[in-house]
Design goal:
Rossmann fold; five-stranded parallel beta sheet; alpha/beta; about 250 residues; six-stranded mixed beta sheet
């Protein structure tokens, strides 16, 4: 069965130059975008139950833009004023620059890594080991904080948002030849929405080792896996698969 309709479990790209659109035109397939999961922020009432007092901290660790959004939302809801002396530690420069949405960037003490890994921030955190860190996370975060513990970094994890299944409506069509996933939560959502799901000829692709393992743990067949040497991105892996599926490889 040739692939004609693909579901990408992510929000629709904001740019018309997305590789997904090029792939859809190149191979004559329909590509729909529909997240299987969504993020919900904790309410101020829920957050207060953690007994964490944000004004007690002198620095904040951010590993995602979503964490920044929900941190400042909660501060606004709880009428907490963040002092200009607050220090911000972000795992990438793009996350750090996102702070401009909420603060005057050039007037704050902001530090960032380059790899997106918490490990990359460690030298900076150690250098500022007198700080009391608030680590903004989701309910399903999996960051390894053992190195922080090993270097006696004074930090407190604060869950500020949660990942939940983005349920399908009863009349919402689900007639795809291929499903692409980007997190184990997406696999969980698929099985929650369709408990009797049978893969049969439906192709499943995923990005990341943990997502691939979730596919296998669910007893499903994995047809596309990225990243790899030949396919560093999900779009590259999709392009490779459709090239073979459409017979273009045979013509080369």
């Amino acid at each position: 069965m040739k692939v004609k309709k693909v579901l990408v479990s992510q929000p629709k790209p904001t740019s018309e130059k997305s590789p997904y659109y090029e792939i859809a035109e190149k191979y004559g397939v329909q590509i729909d975008f529909r997240p299987f999961i969504k993020v919900e922020g904790l309410s101020a009432k829920e957050f207060r139950q953690s007994k964490i007092s944000i004004p007690d901290f002198t620095a904040i660790i951010f590993t995602a833009r979503t964490a920044i959004d929900h941190f400042f939302r909660l501060c606004e809801e709880m009428r907490i004023s963040i002092p200009d002396t607050m220090k911000y530690f972000c795992t990438t420069e793009s996350i750090a620059l996102y702070l401009q949405k909420y603060i005057v960037y050039r007037k704050r003490k902001i530090f960032h890594g380059s790899t997106g890994k918490l490990h990359d921030l460690l030298p900076m955190l150690v250098k500022h080991n007198k700080e009391k860190y608030l680590y903004a996370v989701s309910d399903v975060h999996k960051d390894d904080t053992s190195e922080l513990d090993g270097h006696k970094i004074n930090y407190t994890k604060a869950v500020m948002y949660r990942t939940v299944s983005n349920d399908f409506a009863p009349d919402e069509p689900f007639d795809y030849d291929m499903l692409l996933f980007f997190s184990p939560s997406g696999i969980n959502s698929l099985l929650k929405n369709f408990p009797d799901f049978k893969q049969d000829e439906i192709k499943i692709g995923c990005f990341g080792a943990t997502t691939a393992q979730a596919v296998r743990d669910a007893g499903l067949r994995l047809d596309i896996e990225a990243p790899s040497v030949k396919a560093p991105s999900m779009t590259a892996a999709l392009d490779q698969f459709l090239r073979v599926d459409s017979g273009l490889d045979d013509e080369a």
